[in-house]
Amino acid sequence: MDRDRMTPVQRFAAYGRGDAIDRLPCVPIVGNTAARVVGAKVSDFRGNGRLIAAAQVAAYQRFGYDVIRIFTDLYTQAEAMGARVHYPGDETAYLAAPAIESVEQIATLEPANPHKDGNLPAHLEAMSRAIAAVGNEVVVTGALTGPFTTASFLIGTETLVRLMLKNPAAVHQLCEIALESALAYAEAILDTGCTPSLTDAMCSTTVISPKQFREFGQPYLTRLIEFIHSHNRSVTLHICGKTHAIWEQMCETGADCLSIDNAADLAEAKAMVGDRVRLMGNVSPSEIMLQGTPDQVRAAVRECVRKAHDNPKGLIVASGCSLPVETPFANIDAMLNAVREIGWPIHVGEEEMETAWRA
Amino acid sequence: MPQNESELFQALSNAVVEMDEDRARELSIEAVDRGIDAYTAIERGLVDGMGRAGDLFESEEYFIPELLLCSDAMYAGLDILRPHLKVEDANQRRFKVVIGVVEGDTHDIGKNLVRIMLEASGFDVIDLGRDIPAQRFVDTAVSENADVIALSTLMTTTMDAMAEVVEKLQTSNLRERFKVILGGGPISPSFAKRIHADGYANSAPNAVKLVKQLAGVPA
Q1: Residue A349 — pLDDT band, cuts 50, 70, 90?
Q2: Which fold has domain A8-346?
């Protein structure tokens, strides 16, 4: 398959203006899979901005997708505020213990200093290096975890969700501190020339109710997005799992693009909020990208495009969430190639309704 | 205070649905004081309430936070009523499930919900916790003489640890002795089939249905 005629930066600019492009933007959300591209171990990324940048740039150059996202895991901000993160040798890190155990300890928390605490400086270095290397041709974003999700890592998810009902003031206190950290980190990300890319996993209605999102998630996201907008950057917001019942609220946060998990439906999202936000999604990272065949990836991409290519605010073909580390390169290539094959103007005939991959 | 037994059971059930831990405790003490059969109070009060909470969860009126607080109320009542169970009720052999989050993952809310709903449905549950090596599932299932091993993970990176449990059972010639069931965000029926597990459920209420099926209990 021929590589592309436009660079990602040119493609997004033209797409935004409504001009002709060579193909739809496409973002297999490559996180730690980048380690596989440069033959590194995932744990080598810890504290190593140079390596994160080298791997992410190499992965972009290998696959030719449209957004580089500097990301290793969702815990970086919580870790910088005292949460303990475990780093297995060659797999994605996970939370070993929250920063605090009780409401009384909230007062001991301090907002993170992005230039000093935890792995934040390494991530900022990675962002600067990636921008310097390829920032003129491709969008480089820095992963930023939403305040509610960071709050859940600070005190533990089960404790936090119980507190929502028993002691809402304590939850707000935690979200405020998490927001303060996020604002400082967002500013540092913007200073590197990157755009923050927001993930607020715990706001999913798989976990909390739409009403709880309105009280504990949405206000903090809104303030964070207002800040990023004040720097003239557009914002992509990703919430994992089920989100159908909060799409309206996700739009109210001011987000410019909603990244939709494969647990939600692009056609429904288009009908409900497509006139206000760009949509990004939503090939299953596990079932299709990790475990499927290139043919299944192609079919899944075509289904996404068929559902939402006419979204008024546009579509970015993407995976529904970050890709598993061991996602086969052939499947990532297949995603890009499927989008190249569809090309522009978009042509996916109804007659080829390919749903076989669901079986 | 409720007048008769039925009212008391209804009030206990309501306390669970309404997430009122203190009320569940108070009513359980009342049941004990009145000499009401503990097993019946648990079944028609606490367990009934948790079942209703599960229904509200399925219909998306309740979410994880509400379900957790309902379970807090249920357990508060159980702590009081269980010591008063008749010996034959306390010692009856029940279908036993060993549950845990596989090694490399510490996301355990989903697993906890499944444990809660299984316990509320009368199953014996051994909860190993999170980040559990494959061998421990096998060893515990053997030593506890369990019927089912239930594995959970939220991360794609740890899915393979589920296959490892099945493989260990196979190499130890124990595969036929236990049913293995899976749950968690990245898991699908096709994955369960591929690693030769016996079942998959996409939610806590469905996990209960699955275990009931395996136990041969009418749903």
Answers
A1: low
A2: TIM Barrel (3.20.20)
